[in-house]
């Protein structure tokens, strides 16, 4: 516990003394001066160490800062307390920092160099010099940045040692690789040389093979210098190389013997060689070679036999392909034909190929030329029966192909080249550009000209459309307007083959109406189609009109044409009855049949299709009025024969026993059945005696077709009137009799002939 300061009693003097000189200030100053000296000594003793410690710390801090900034340590005045400690501390700290930095640098350099030198080692693993250059550049670059020569020398030494280790390893691997590659390369060279030498030896070029053997020998010496293992077996390897060339020489000689003298001769020669073991062979080696060569000869024989069989099969295949191709009408080039003919020469296939070749030539002839060839073959009798049979078979194929798609078949035969056009652009369509329509019409006109060529070629009316184009057109018809349909019919008027083709594709009604060419009839029929589709009239039942149709048409049409005509008549019927009609009108239906057919009437006792504008009587008059001169002008040959004549007057027939000359052809024309055939106004005559059509002189297998128009009938009548007026004919001649009288005369003639 703090004690109170002791109080001092004040002392007073009892005597009075006079005042002296005042020295208190001076004394005080002296006392203060002494106190100052004492305090300074005390301060120095206490503060100096503290200051020195502070300066030392400051020296260390300055050293760290200067080290970081890469500059010299700032100096302090030497008269200041602690300047020595500042200097010593900064130097000590600088030294410590430099030692630490050096350690870090060494560590970083070691790690970095390991990565870099390893990278160089991978990059230059096949290039020792490249590695050395890259390592030296790296070491020099690294060391040049070190200011401390001692550190630089030490780092240089360590990096060099590390790089040298990599260098030695790379150099060693490189030398091994070079040696290995050299061994492989020389070994491959030996193999290539041996292969060429063996080939030459097998071919019989022994001298050339031996020259290459010398090169093989040198290469083997080189390989021995590279490979101790190969060197140990050098003599054996050289012996084997010589023996292999010798073996190939023998095998080649035997192979050629097989080709020239047969395999038996080669086996005999090998047996002879097997009895003497050559130099450089052990008995076991020679025996192994002989057995191997025997197997080779067997293989050669088997291969030759197989090759011959394969070649024969290939020839047979090519021959069959050729026969099939030409049989189908495809054009086979002259080069291919010559090659096939050459390959089958002397083989059993030669006759078949030659016949196919002849049929190919036959197939591209015109119909008239083909008919003449068949007639010539038929005239040979038994001698031509084989050729005739083949031609008839080919003719049947041609006709079938033409009926199926004549235009495409013509292109396939090379008769024409295909002309591209679009059948759907033929109809007038405002959306079709004018240029496109014109170009397409030009293409169609080309097609029409081509169809004329094909019609002459095949003897049929050929359509300018392919089967696919006709089908396309048929599918488009329901979407066409009435005007477009009529326009198409006019466009097709001069190409009759097209109507039958469209009918075959399912557009029979349109084909029937378009072929007729009567615009008024077409308008009514197409209107009828539209009415029925719109429900404006009701369809009549088949049972209502079937019998009427049969009676009206008789046997004029076959099943397909009858169905087509019936549909066309129905279309016309629906266009002619009143709107809303639902009751069958027999009269209008019979009118419809007459309208869409152009007319059907009974002619010479049978229902016959008439040309437009021609009556049955007029058609009969035309044929009745033909005479021998007319038949000649028409190109129909007449057959004349002698027979017992039957004379008669129109009213009183009588029989004579006189021999008379009879024109059988004219007799058949004037009394036969008139039958319409496809085509406008086309007819054939069935001979009443044979019930066969009068044949066409140009093609005896085809009927002669009479084409009749209204103008022909008018010309015939005018000529007869002139002849009557001139007295050349009896006015009562049958040509002027009424139909009933003419029929009576025919029946009478027939009865007398029987």
What does this structure look like?
The protein has 754 residues and is mostly helical. The chain is built from 27 helices and 9 strands. The strands form 4 sheets. It has a 3-stranded antiparallel sheet, with helices on one face. Helix 1 (24-69) runs parallel beside helix 2, helix 16 packs across helix 18 and helix 17 runs antiparallel to helix 18. The protein is elongated and about 195 Å long.
Q: Summed up, what is this model?
A:
The protein has 754 residues and is mainly alpha-helical.
- Contiguous uncertain segments of 5+ residues: 1-20, 648-655, 729-739
Question: Structural class, from helix and strand content?
Answer: mainly alpha
The coarse silhouette is elongated
Largest beta sheet: strand ordering: 5-6-9
- Quote the distance from N terminus to C terminus: 189 Å
Number of helices: 27
Number of strands: 9
Radius of gyration: 63 Å
- The percent of residues in helical segments reads 55-70%
Query: Into which percentage range does the β-strand content fall?
Result: under 5%
How would the blueprint of this fold be written?
Elements: H1 24-69, H2 83-123, H3 128-143, H4 149-203, H5 206-226, H6 228-232, H7 234-261, H8 263-274, H9 283-327, H10 334-343, H11 350-363, H12 367-379, H13 385-413, H14 434-458, H15 467-476, H16 482-491, H17 497-504, H18 508-516, H19 519-534, H20 542-553, H21 559-576, H22 586-597, E1 600-603, E2 606-609, H23 616-625, H24 628-634, E3 640-644, E4 659-663, H25 664-671, E5 673-676, E6 682-686, E7 695-696, E8 699-703, E9 706-707, H26 710-725, H27 739-753
Antiparallel strand pairs: 1-2, 3-4, 5-6, 6-9, 7-8
Helix pairs in contact: 1-2, 2-4, 3-4, 4-5, 4-7, 5-7, 7-8, 7-9, 8-9, 9-10, 9-11, 12-13, 16-18, 17-18, 18-21, 19-21, 20-22, 21-22, 23-26
């Amino acid at each position: 516990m703090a004690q109170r300061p002791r109080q001092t009693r004040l002392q007073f003097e009892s005597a009075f003394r006079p005042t002296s000189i005042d020295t208190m200030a001076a004394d005080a100053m002296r006392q203060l001066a002494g106190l100052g000296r004492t305090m300074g000594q005390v301060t120095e003793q206490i503060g100096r160490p503290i200051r020195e410690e502070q300066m030392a710390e400051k020296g260390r801090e300055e050293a760290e800062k200067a080290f970081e900034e890469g500059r010299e340590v700032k100096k302090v005045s030497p008269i200041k307390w602690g300047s020595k400690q500042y200097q010593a501390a900064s130097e000590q700290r600088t030294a410590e920092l430099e030692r630490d930095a050096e350690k870090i640098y060494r560590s970083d350099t070691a790690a970095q160099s390991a990565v870099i030198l390893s990278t160089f080692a991978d990059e230059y693993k096949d290039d020792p010099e490249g590695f050395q250059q890259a390592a030296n550049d790296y070491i020099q670059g690294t060391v040049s940045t070190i200011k401390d020569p001692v550190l630089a020398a030490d780092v240089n030494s360590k990096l060099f040692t590390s790089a040298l280790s990599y260098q030695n390893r790379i150099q060693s691997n490189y030398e091994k690789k070079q040696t290995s590659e050299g061994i492989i390369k020389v070994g491959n060279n030996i193999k290539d040389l041996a292969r060429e030498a063996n080939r030459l030896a097998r071919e019989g070029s022994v001298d050339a093979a031996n020259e290459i053997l010398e090169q093989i020998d040198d290469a083997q010496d080189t390989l021995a210098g590279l490979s101790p293992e190969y060197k140990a077996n050098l003599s054996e390897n050289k012996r084997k190389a010589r023996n292999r060339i010798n073996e190939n020489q023998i095998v080649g000689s035997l192979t050629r013997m097989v080709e020239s003298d047969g395999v038996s001769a080669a086996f005999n020669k090998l047996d002879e060689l097997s009895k003497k073991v050559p130099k450089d062979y052990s008995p076991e080696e020679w025996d192994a070679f002989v057995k191997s060569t025997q197997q080779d000869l067997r293989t050669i024989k088997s291969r030759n036999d197989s090759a011959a069989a394969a070649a024969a099969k290939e020839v047979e295949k090519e021959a069959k392909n050729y026969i099939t191709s030409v049989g189908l009408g495809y054009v086979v080039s002259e080069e291919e034909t010559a090659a096939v003919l050459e390959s089958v020469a002397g083989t059993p296939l030669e006759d078949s190929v030659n016949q196919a070749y002849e049929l190919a030539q036959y197939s591209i002839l015109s119909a008239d030329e083909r008919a003449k060839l068949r007639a010539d073959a038929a005239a040979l009798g038994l001698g031509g029966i084989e050729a005739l049979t083949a031609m008839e078979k080919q003719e049947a194929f041609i006709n079938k192909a033409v009926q199926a798609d004549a235009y495409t078949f013509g292109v396939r035969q090379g008769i024409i080249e295909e002309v591209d056009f679009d059948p759907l652009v033929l109809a007038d369509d405002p959306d079709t550009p004018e240029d496109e329509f014109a170009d397409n019409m030009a293409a169609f006109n080309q097609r029409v000209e081509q169809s004329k060529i094909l019609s002459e070629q095949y003897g049929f009316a050929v359509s300018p459309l392919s089967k696919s184009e006709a089908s396309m057109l048929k599918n488009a018809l329901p979407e066409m307007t009435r005007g477009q349909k009529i326009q198409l019919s006019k466009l097709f008027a001069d190409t009759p083959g097209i109507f039958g083709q469209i009918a075959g594709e399912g557009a029979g009604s349109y084909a029937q109406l378009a072929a007729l060419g009567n615009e008024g009839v077409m308008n009514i029929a197409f209107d009828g189609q539209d009415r029925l589709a719109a429900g404006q009239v009701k369809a009549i039942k088949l049972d209502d009109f079937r019998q009427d149709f049969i009676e009206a048409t008789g046997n004029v049409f076959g099943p397909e044409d009858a169905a087509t005509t019936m549909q066309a008549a129905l279309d016309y019927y629906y266009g002619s009855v009143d709107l809303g009609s639902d009751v069958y009108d027999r009269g209008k239906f019979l009118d419809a049949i007459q309208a869409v057919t152009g007319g059907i009437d009974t002619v010479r006792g049978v229902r016959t299709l008439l040309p437009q504008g021609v009556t049955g009587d007029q058609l009969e008059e035309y044929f009745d009025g033909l005479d021998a001169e007319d038949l000649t002008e028409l190109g129909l040959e007449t057959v004349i024969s002698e027979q017992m004549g039957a004379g008669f007057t129109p009213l009183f027939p009588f029989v004579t026993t006189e021999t008379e000359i009879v024109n059988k052809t004219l007799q058949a024309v004037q009394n036969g059945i008139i039958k319409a055939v496809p085509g406008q106004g086309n007819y054939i005559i069935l001979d009443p005696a044979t019930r066969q059509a009068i044949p066409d002189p140009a093609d005896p297998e085809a009927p002669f077709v009479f084409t009749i128009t209204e103008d022909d009938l008018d010309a015939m009548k005018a000529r007869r009137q002139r002849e009557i007026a001139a007295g050349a004919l009896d006015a009562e001649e049958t040509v002027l009799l009424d139909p009933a009288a003419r029929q009576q005369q025919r029946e009478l003639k027939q009865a007398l002939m029987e």
